[in-house]
Amino acid sequence: MAETFTGTAPGRVNLIGEHTDYNGGMVLPAALSIGLEVTLAPRTDSAVAVTSNGYDAPAIRELSDDAVGEWSDPCVGAIREANALDLLSGGATLDLHSTIPEGSGLSSSAALIVAILKAAREAAGGGPDDVELAIAARRVENYYMGVPCGIMDQMAVALATPGTAMALDTKALSYDLVALPAGFEMAVVHSGLTRKLTDGRYAARKVECDAAKRHFGTEDLCLLDEATVEAVDLDDIPKRRTMHCLTEHARVKYALAAMQACDMDSFGALMNESHASMRDLFEMSLPEIDALVESATEFGALGARLTGGGFGGCIVACLKSGQREAWLAKLLERHPDARFIDAVSAD
Ligand code: ADP
Ligand code: MG
């Protein structure tokens, strides 16, 4: 049997800072305990053969295949990128095992691509560092899959560590790993609704942001001044998208300071404000998710918000340690389609 190499990557939950990562702003993701492991065997031919615990039938593809909307697309794109980086010269046989639900805003696609690139780097006996791998993984989503995402997911799953949040400046590509405060946890609850980033609504928001970028003559909507944007003569939709970006970026900075001061009441209030902005200004929520977020705070969370690209997926709620069981029982009773996924905390 051919020699095999392994790569792993966790899922991630973004605590605050949504759609800021392609608008010059900050984000605050954290690594989950759920994750993905890939076993890779290099091949001498150009086939990409994949088995996954998530899919019954294996996929047999060719390196020359374009993305066709199949689950194995990210695998083909990642193996192509590994060839471009000189980590492989040919196809690969891949076996995937994942505990990250797909299409839920927890970055299963980035974890998959980063894990494959890390396995390919093992096969090559070295290569690009983790930041360069994250940038390469973003290229796979942007140019191979056609998903116009920013750099948050790939950086988080390539570099975040348990017990910390990654304060990532997506413009400078600099980051700090900041300890999560003791005595609290961030609970991730699935709404029961899934979406695909390839489904168009995410891309529509990107197009609206691009229109605003042209108007303001900047790539960095997050760094614009609120009063300037308020005063400008611009259509309602690009204006509201811009207001979300710049206020969300400011909220990440306040939230980071609150977290470092262990002031989780303020952190929670910022999560609630972030949700309202995603709902009203960026229009990326759904009524069922708004209801879940409202119940989460009604039942005692310090704050709660939709997390990830939007239009389905998960919420994240800030809880005091020890509060989760009773809180969850009430939440799941009222929202039977919802389910607990994971929690991150200092320990
Ligand atoms: P997410 O928010 O989870 O990243 P995406 O729509 O961006 O959602 O990515 C989901 C895609 O990632 C799936 O359609 C599939 O192509 C790939 N994927 C994720 N997990 C697995 C898995 N366990 N096995 C195979 N492919 C997977
Ligand atoms: Mg994804």
Short description:
By secondary structure, the protein is of the alpha+beta class.
Structural class: alpha+beta
CATH class of the largest domain, named Alpha Beta
Listed once per kind, the bound small molecules are:
adenosine-5'-diphosphate, magnesium ion
Cα(first) to Cα(last) distance is 40 Å
What is the average of the pLDDT values? 96
Please provide the count of β strands: 12
Which residues sit in consecutive blocks of at least 5 with pLDDT less than 50? Answer: none
Q: Name the CATH architecture of the largest domain.
A: 2-Layer Sandwich
- Strands ordered across the widest β-sheet: 1-3-6-4-5
How many structural domains can be distinguished in the coordinates?
2
Helix/strand order, N-terminal first: EEEEEHEHHHEEEHHHHHEEHE
Q: What's the CATH topology name of the largest domain?
A: Ribosomal Protein S5, domain 2
Number of helices: 10
Proportion of beta-strand residues = 15-25%
Describe this structure in words.
- This protein is α+β, with helices and mostly antiparallel strands.
- The chain folds into two domains: 5-179, 2-Layer Sandwich (Ribosomal Protein S5, domain 2), CATH 3.30.230; 184-345, GHMP kinase, C-terminal domain (Alpha-Beta Plaits), CATH 3.30.70.890.
- It is built from ten helices and twelve strands.
- Strands 1-3-6-4-5 form a five-stranded mixed sheet. It has a four-stranded antiparallel sheet with strand order 10-11-9-12.
- Strand 10 and strand 11 form a beta hairpin.
- The mean pLDDT is 96.
- The structure holds adenosine-5'-diphosphate and magnesium ion.
